[in-house]
Fold Chaperone protein HtpG.
Amino acid sequence: MQEKGSISIHTENIFPVIKKFLYSDNEIFLRELVSNAVDASQKIKRLSSLGQYQGEVGDLLVDVKVDKEAKTITISDNGIGMTAEEIKKYINQIAFSGATEFMEKFKEANDANEIIGRFGLGFYSAFMVADKVEIDSLSYQEGAEPAHWTCDGSTSYEISEGTRTTRGTDIILHINEDAEEFLEESRIQTILDKYCKFLPVPIRFGTKSTQEEDGEDEEGKPKYKTVEVDNIINNTSPAWTKSPSELTDEDYLAFYRELYPYPMDEPLFWIHLNVDYPFNLTGILYFPKIKNELEVQRNKIKLYSRQVFITDEVKDIVPEFLMLLHGVIDSPDIPLNVSRSFLQADSNVKKINNYITKKVADKLQEIFKSDRKGFEEKWNDIGLFIKYGMLSDEKFAEKANEFCLLKNTQGESYTMKEYYEKVKDIQVDKDGNIVYLYTHDVAQQDSFIAGATAKGYDVLVLDGPLDTHMTSYLEQKGGEKIQLKRVDADVIDKLIQKDEKIELTLSEDESKKATEVFEKAISRADMKVEVDALHAEDLPVSVTLDEFMRRMKEMAKTGGGMGFYGSLPDNYKVTVNGNHPLVKRIVESSDEEGAKLAKQAFDLALLSRGLLTGSELTSFVKRSVEMI
């Protein structure tokens, strides 16, 4: 048997097009060909289970071999095989509509996955790296004859009698000069590890050395010898393909270590995904300990299709905030060859996105309800993730409002609803606004916190990278008439103003003199002095930064769209407590003594805020020693 013919396509330039447009992703040829071999292996197993194949299936295996001298890569399987007619049907007819449409649509393309997926060019990806490709195949069908197909990269092919004597297919690639990197075993091993690590049929790539016991030495201790064994690169039954009832906690942790063999903290908990309607999806998502560097955590979720690795860039499949999770998603409803434009438009992808969000929210709610103490202990590790979700995904936020925790300076935890109930009758101002006080630095703002707690007020700790945005979220979603004010944004009586009227003990002239003394002692354009009537036991001088301006500037720093505010300088308010004995003393002192005391009181206020540094701090220390 020998036959020559032309591949049924509508352009003479198909192979140059493949090489040109797909070159940047040429390593996927191996994924495509190994996946085809696995499919062929599974088909024979399926036919046997249906009784349509009576022979011995045997141990299914896909073999990958590199012959550096002959410059070939061979992918072999003992699957279903093909007859000459099947080769002509499945290999020689490339399914796309026309050269004009092809060239027009992809003249700017550089996405190999999109072109291969759209036009069924999986097998032809071999020509990205090969000048000539051969197929040697023997079908499972009784009486079938072996068939051999060869093509040199033109539209001409040749079919003749093959040499294979056992069921299955060999694909032989004659590697071209530009792709000789793929004749290095380490390169092939890396690609197989990347794309084929969890395929359902064993993939063998040569052999590897291992140690096995070889009797005992004179002291009765076991001896070992080095032996060569098959190098099976994949785990054919990864954890996500099993039922949760089959797996222990150790199984989940072992799989996590298999996914991420480099040192990582163990995950806090995980979700096993398993749905078959209205789409098919399996997978395991792990909750890592979320550090405060959001970018470091990303791109740890791997996307598979029928256990074939596709990509670890899954931002179109999972919501933005879930990019912080680790693990695996596998769905046959996402094509093996995907492109970004496909993902963005595909309805199944949108459904999967919503499903995963719901499952994550449900899991967190379940843990919170069943083990609140444990949930609170994990909050420092998962709080950033939950807040990120609330700020970026409305559906997630609806559920997360029930388990998002707020922590105060006493280390106590409250849900948003619980905290509202805690402070709504105490921290209410004269206009009926419920004021949440918070600190972003407990140590630095200790004096302000002490002033608030002395009044019986509670102070939240909001010190994370997203908490500037979280303050606005709480004002909108936390309850009616809520305002958040950082505890150092003003003196405490101004942060939560009551109907109480405090009289200023200084006369008008004394108040004016106090203002002039402090302005002269401070002499800074970014500090505005204001004498106010406060309780005598409050601090004599406080330095504060307006809540609104500070919040806008912080949002500008974190990319909150407030760039105008980010360019403005800081402007502080210096509140002088006109009812404090020290201020009375400053007013009644000589100009020199008053200025010295005013400067000392102001520096103490700066020191309490961590704003006294450099030569100013040195002068303050020296002055303090002199005044003792």
Q: What stands out?
A: Residues 95-103, 105-120, 338-342 have pLDDT under 50 and may be disordered. The first strand starts at residue 2 and ends at 6. The chain has four domains: 2-205, 239-374, 404-495, 508-627. The first helix runs from residue 14 to 22.
